[in-house]
Design goal:
Number of domains: 2
CATH topology of the largest domain: Methylamine Dehydrogenase, Chain H
Strand content: 35-45%
CATH superfamily of the largest domain: YVTN repeat-like/Quinoprotein amine dehydrogenase
Helix content: 10-25%
Structural class: alpha+beta
CATH architecture of the largest domain: 7 Propeller
Length: 757
């Protein structure tokens, strides 16, 4: 079980006195490397992202937080051993813990027994006690920030996330922290202190005991809404733990227990060998997790990196690139830490559903970040060691993308789509706008109700949904006038109350709705789901399929077939339904050799085969007519990663992005897989989650959350890139024209060209 990945071109050979030997991961603040100290001790070195290093306010806060973190000393923390906040790229080094992340362990082996959960809580409470005594608040305690070692858990990244406040990381709409673990006071913009870490601890214990967070899964905005307004679901938490977990999750921070109280209360646990409250030889862990932890600790650490020239001589596989990719109508929302996963149409991936929390005063205002776009053309050739997002394979075959600006609009337009010479999308004022593609001028504005979101266009009708108003509306693309409106009550199953639309797809004259519904108090579960079909021209309901089990967010329609994923008690199944009638055509079991099946997160259809990507990094090729397996491809990401929509199929190759389930600001990758055999042709690591846009002139174009447009050679994966934005560019490609958020509060249009390097 390897915890690290090889170094990539552009990674440093040395940071301060540390020799860099491998990558450990990446997050919203920086990249983390495995390194060796001058005396030969292993360390984890975090190097801050370049865009944050340019922010003086971030540097000041980073320096203060590092100084505070260096005061933390406790047996269940990874101490800070060195740092340089004044370096060109600030960095800090902590003791290296060869441990398995809690999220990875639960995903691989399932829920924990009460004894192990109590032991986990005991160690985490003691870690928080040490952190708080140093006047530090963690603020981002989550499964990926807890490492499991034989002698107890380790809390990492304590205090450092605070430095991201008032910087580009938060002013561009990113809330530091993970859905389900953020306390309600943080979500509504109040001060966060040690009780916020107690809330996260309670959520972690519920997660380990049940395999899902106490506020469920699904889109981030839905999870956060339940954190603020609803009680946690602790039904499956063992009785001996439920009471303490419930107190930790109290809405009022003043009602949560103090950390020293938790240390005493949770410290009375007994290990498998009968020892009381003592972490020895892995006896506190579930047996399969202990085996993984032991195996990881026995692995030899990698040696110093080879030279660039040695890596450049590696053989590269080749494929033939050809026609444009197959188009599949899909819908996707955010990525949950556990529970129904997401997948779907390209622009919905960048969806920012803030209205639910804005009603509670929860979100900061999006700031305008300027100065990153050159006047008329912006191109960024790769340079040795000069960019944090440089890809890892040789770039001799890569074509350099250049984006020549055609116009900027007067404002933002989120996840726009092109139809009839117009760009349609959500503006930063919360309303639907249509701009002319020729010059970016506003053609019309539709005063949509509160909490309305653009879902897609078909047959000259733009579709918007409103969770708050419980409606779906059709808007005439030519004039911006409402054509029809459908109230959710027309497709709400009897005995339930509408909650939210998880995904909406517009395809073949129909609007397909993937929705969640609340059940009455006292029911044996909190929610149910349904998929409905509404006529695009009239809003008339065609059919509704009620789903008793958990429905994945991902929803796709192609060639007259609807594809959905359903988690049933024994397995997760991918379904194919007739798009006109809703009748089931077949059901496919997604189970593989992994202990737990993955949930549907991405779909593509081509030449009689449907390709299902799941949230365990597995790609399934299934006969589209019979529902039988042709092959499976395991991306073997070594962690919790999911296939991201859209998948692109072109000339016998499936191209897809891999991204984080717990956070879209973790590292990702792009894979190319032979469509006939399921064999990997190449893969390229990316600094943040990638979003594929299609093929152009023999290259696969994709953008990343870090603000770059990449062109990967379709044969080799060799990659070059250009900068688009200071953050997520939310890009839409139409032929050789690209529309994107420039990070300066405006939508930009540019012409894309590729040149030999």
């Amino acid at each position: 079980m390897q915890a690290y990945v090889p170094l990539q071109t552009g990674d440093p050979e040395r940071v301060g006195p540390y020799r860099i030997v491998a990558r450990l991961g990446s997050g919203g603040m920086g990249r983390v490397y495995l390194a060796g100290s001058p005396g030969g001790r292993a360390a984890a070195v975090k190097v801050v992202h370049e865009e944050l290093a340019e922010d003086p306010a971030f540097r000041r806060r980073f320096g203060r937080e590092v100084a505070a973190a260096q005061r933390v000393a406790g047996p269940f923390t990874a101490p800070v051993v060195a740092a340089d906040p004044d370096a060109d790229l600030p960095w800090l080094a902590t003791a290296y813990v060869p441990g398995v992340a809690l999220g990875t362990a639960v995903a691989a082996h399932g829920v924990w027994p009460e004894r192990s959960v109590r032991a986990l809580g005991s160690g985490l409470a003691e870690a928080l006690d040490a952190i708080h005594r140093a006047d530090v608040v963690h603020r981002d305690l989550k499964p990926s920030n807890v490492l499991l070692a034989p002698d107890g858990p380790r809390v990492i990244d304590f205090g450092i996330s605070v430095a991201a406040d008032d910087t580009k990381l938060t002013t561009t709409g990113v809330m530091v922290g993970s859905p389900g673990y953020l306390p309600p006071e943080q979500l509504v913009g109040r001060e966060v202190g040690p009780p916020g870490d107690v809330f996260a601890l309670g959520a972690l214990l519920a997660y380990a005991a049940t395999g899902t967070g106490p506020f469920g899964g699904g889109p981030a905005h839905g999870v956060n809404y339940r954190v603020v307004h609803e009680e946690p679901d602790l039904e499956r938490v063992p009785g001996g733990l439920a009471e303490v977990v419930a107190r930790c999750l109290a809405k009022d921070p003043r009602q949560r227990p103090e950390v020293p109280e938790l240390v005493g209360e949770l410290g009375r646990w007994e290990a498998a060998d009968g020892t009381r409250g003592t972490f020895t030889a892995g006896t506190w862990l579930p047996a399969p997790v202990a085996a993984d932890v032991t195996a990881l600790g026995a692995e030899p650490l990698p040696q110093v990196r080879p030279t660039n020239s040695a890596r450049a001589e590696a053989d590269l596989p080749t494929v033939t690139a050809g026609p444009a990719p197959t188009a599949v109508a899909t819908a996707r929302l955010g990525t949950p830490p556990a529970g129904p996963s997401s997948g779907g149409r390209p622009r919905a991936a960048a969806r920012r559903r803030t209205a639910v929390l804005a009603a509670a005063g929860a979100f900061v205002v999006l700031a305008v970040v300027g100065g990153l776009l050159l006047p008329r053309a912006f191109s960024d050739s790769s340079r040795p060691g000069g960019d944090a997002e440089n890809s890892g394979t040789p770039t001799a075959a890569a074509k350099q993308p250049t984006v020549r600006e055609l116009w900027p609009s007067d404002g933002e337009l989120q996840h726009p789509e092109v139809a009839r010479g117009k760009l349609v999308g959500e503006g930063d004022d919360g309303r639907l706008h249509a701009l002319t593609t020729a010059d970016g001028d506003t053609e019309w504005t539709y005063d949509s109700p509160d909490s309305a979101y653009f879902e897609g266009i078909g047959d000259g009708v733009a579709v918007v949904s409103s969770d708050a108003e419980h409606t779906i509306q059709g808007i005439d693309v030519d004039g911006g006038k409402r054509v029809w409106e459908v109230d959710a009550r027309t497709h709400t199953p009897s005995g339930t109350e509408f909650n939210l639309y998880m995904g909406v797809v517009v395809a073949d004259g129909t609007v397909y709705l993937n929705a969640m519904y609340d059940l009455p108090e006292g029911a044996d579960r909190s929610a149910m789901y349904a998929v409905s079909a509404v006529d695009l021209a009239t809003g008339r309901l065609k059919w509704t399929n009620r789903i008793e089990n958990i429905l994945s967010d991902a929803l796709a329609v192609a060639d007259g077939v609807v594809y959905v994923g359903v988690r049933e008690p024994d397995d997760t199944y991918f379904h194919a339904w007739d798009a006109e009638t809703g009748d089931q055509l077949w059901r496919y079991s997604s189970r593989t050799s992994r202990p737990y099946p993955g949930e549907l997160s991405a779909v593509a259809v081509s030449d009689g085969t449907v390709y299902f990507g799941d949230d365990r990094g597995v790609l399934h090729a299934v006969d589209a007519r019979r529902g039988t397996r042709r092959w499976i491809y395991d991306a073997d990401t070594g962690g919790v990663r999911q296939w991201l929509d859209p998948l692109v199929v072109a000339d016998g190759v499936v191209y897809g992005g891999i991204g984080g389930v717990t956070s879209e600001y973790e590292s990702g990758a792009v894979h190319a897989v032979d469509a006939d055999s399921g064999k990997r042709l190449w893969s390229e690591q990316t600094e943040r989650d990638p979003e594929l846009h299609g093929l152009l002139d023999g290259s696969v174009l994709f953008s990343t959350k870090a603000g770059a447009l990449h062109a990967a050679d379709a044969r080799t994966g060799a990659t070059a890139k250009t900068r688009l934005s200071s953050g997520d560019p939310d890009a839409a490609l139409d032929g050789d024209r690209i529309y994107f958020d420039g990070g300066d509060g405006r939508l930009h249009a540019g012409g894309v060209s590729l040149t030999e390097r």
